Amino acid sequence: MLELRPGCECCDVDLPPDSPDARICSFECTFCAACAGGVLGGRCPNCGGELVRRPVRPAGALARHPASTVRVVKERGCVAAF
Known about the structure:
By secondary structure, the chain is low in regular secondary structure. Helix content is 13%, strand content 10%.
């Protein structure tokens, strides 16, 4: 089950579970659409994987399986690594 992390690893902008602006890689590294499409060029700086739109969990399922509250933020922001 996806963690649905609460913020962008680059800029720490909030990404609520229903955000259409969240992007993830296959390891669930999480970025906002602006960072993913901008400085990262659609690639995860951690693994080099493709960043895609994170699915939205339906409200009923979200109540049973809440989103993560753990924030992961890169100390120096993001730069394209690949």
